[in-house]
Amino acid sequence: MLDRVNAMSDGVVAIALTLLVLSIEVPQSHDFTNGGLIAYLVKVEYQLTVYLVSFVLIGCYWVLQNVMFHYFRHGTRVLTWLNLLFLFLLTLLPLTTQLIGTYRDEPLVMVVYGAVSIACSLSLALIWWYSNHIGMVVWPKIDPTVERTFMRRILYGACLSLVAVGVSFLNVRMSHFVFLSMPLLYLSDRQVDRHWSELVAANNGEVDGIDD
Amino acid sequence: MLDRVNAMSDGVVAIALTLLVLSIEVPQSHDFTNGGLIAYLVKVEYQLTVYLVSFVLIGCYWVLQNVMFHYFRHGTRVLTWLNLLFLFLLTLLPLTTQLIGTYRDEPLVMVVYGAVSIACSLSLALIWWYSNHIGMVVWPKIDPTVERTFMRRILYGACLSLVAVGVSFLNVRMSHFVFLSMPLLYLSDRQVDRHWSELVAANNGEVDGIDD
Amino acid sequence: MLDRVNAMSDGVVAIALTLLVLSIEVPQSHDFTNGGLIAYLVKVEYQLTVYLVSFVLIGCYWVLQNVMFHYFRHGTRVLTWLNLLFLFLLTLLPLTTQLIGTYRDEPLVMVVYGAVSIACSLSLALIWWYSNHIGMVVWPKIDPTVERTFMRRILYGACLSLVAVGVSFLNVRMSHFVFLSMPLLYLSDRQVDRHWSELVAANNGEVDGIDD
Amino acid sequence: MLDRVNAMSDGVVAIALTLLVLSIEVPQSHDFTNGGLIAYLVKVEYQLTVYLVSFVLIGCYWVLQNVMFHYFRHGTRVLTWLNLLFLFLLTLLPLTTQLIGTYRDEPLVMVVYGAVSIACSLSLALIWWYSNHIGMVVWPKIDPTVERTFMRRILYGACLSLVAVGVSFLNVRMSHFVFLSMPLLYLSDRQVDRHWSELVAANNGEVDGIDD
User: Fold this and answer.
1) How confident is the model at residue C70 (pLDDT cuts 50, 70, 90)?
2) I want to staple C200 with a disulfide (CB 3.0 to 4.6 A). Which of A96, A182, C205, D43 is the partner?
């Protein structure tokens, strides 16, 4: 069951990532003769930034879900439905991306966007909590420190989204850059990854090390 | 052949889930200054509910198809085509979702929506019936009680859709909540799942328990 | 390489199937009060038939590609590019579907549609010919009769498309039914399938019988 | 982790390929009676060429990514993010395709298109460089000549894009044909492939030869 939950999640993420690009409209009658290319690029620059922000956010949540599901021995129905909840919230990101692309420099729209991003983080935290304490689907030898470290890392994302929403009331453009810094949180997840490699080795599984 | 039927089904489900979000339109000129955010959220609340209802329905049918295909030893051409029939009916859900999002509080549109949902259930029932009685693709030791229990569970979904259509003539909003209760039918499929785990263990397959 | 070629093909097919439903428009202001539901269903009935025709055609070509790729031991670059050619032609089907949905009862548009369908068949025939005579990617013990039977079956599809185009000059609706009969050609591919099962068994692979 | 990175990449490529076809518009009121079919085909011929060009480019980059990831033993976080960067640039191709479909015979738009294509090549070169020199994720026995040959091949694509942009200032249509010649660069990658087959054999993996 876990295989197909992963396959479906990858599909939804791939579509969500690609749908985003549809929110960038191609102007129908633009004059390219006198420095028109620069004028055009300036015009779409805002939408491109917004696209990049959402691409990066969806990427972050996908990497987190990816690492998390590596810890799971098997799937359960509740896990499937919690993952569907996560995917539901994730598919709201392309919608809210269109919203912040249409209503530029409007902090209230950034509140909606940030709320969806925080909800994605919290749904991942819920999956992690459920898997460790209710569903018992995690590989048995998992270290409680690793469990807590990973939970903290998930919640860091929610905090960063909160900070970005706060910053948007000062300057909407600056809040985009706060969101863009999110991958830095997740680039080097060494402690969790090292533990995971050891775990798989101990369980005689094939070592498909995430980071070494 | 079964692998690729599953891969393609996961793809169609992933796209159907994500396409739904496209049916929610972003208003082009909305005033966010004076309590405009709340006005906006109230405006899209109906479409969001409709989106959630369809996401949940497609999720239910995907989980059912998922569990069902775990019971299959190999694929046949007829099974592939019956699965394509199921996917065809499933892709009508995003279309009818747009319909009930456009014609709000119109019970006749809910009849069309409910009919598509019932057709999805019945096509799954047809696949299950074919697999057990004609195609002989199910693992040999399957218990007849489990077969009947699973069939009954599939048809419960059709009944719930029927109830939801009936309720829509009283109140369209209430019928949405009837649809939203469908996952409760499928959250704990313990008898079927327990049997399946035993079955796989008996056949020396790897135990990838759905629920324990 | 073959795995990822298959995964990508399944993705393109899944998207092509689901994109088709986008070609059915939801009328914005329709009166549902006085027998409006029947009037509405009559209105979309043409587009639904066209959708079903294209769903069935894409399904046929996917099943053919599926069976064909089961015969391949490994991939080559040329095979990958020939498969991309097939996918390119396949993605033209949603486009021509929109065309025949917009220009109803216009035989000339059916010529374009039929031409794309024939091109899909011919590209599959080219892949099969290349694989047997140039690329040498087919399992070694393949029977020349099976090779020819399979080629003939691929070309039957092209012939049926040709017939459907001819019929469209008499009656466009009738030509839809000719296209809809295509799966009947491919439902029972017993000789090819039986051979394939024996082949896999002889090569000590796991038997994942397509049809028994 | 590598499996899911591949699955997601295949998903994004499949969607990008299929989205392209949406950029071809179906004219709403066209007269098919007097030689209207030819007039119509002439009208969409430009868009079809542009579609084919982008399909071929995305195909090239997918094949390159495909071959490259065959060399990798395991994934790392940085590799995942570099791959997301590549996918981000790849999803800009459908957007710029719409641009060159809308602004025909405009060399400046071809500059934007070429720049995105060059960026895709360079991101692949970056992944290859990282994998060999920083991430150490490549199978250990890789020959330095093969490493350099593969890098050169990636950069050939960037050079071809540069040539195409230059040609577009002379004639935009001719630059399309320069882009269309790109697969010729990648059809016979024999040295790299031969090395790869030997490598896998030496590591006792299953031989899933890319090329003979």
Assistant:
1) confident
2) C205
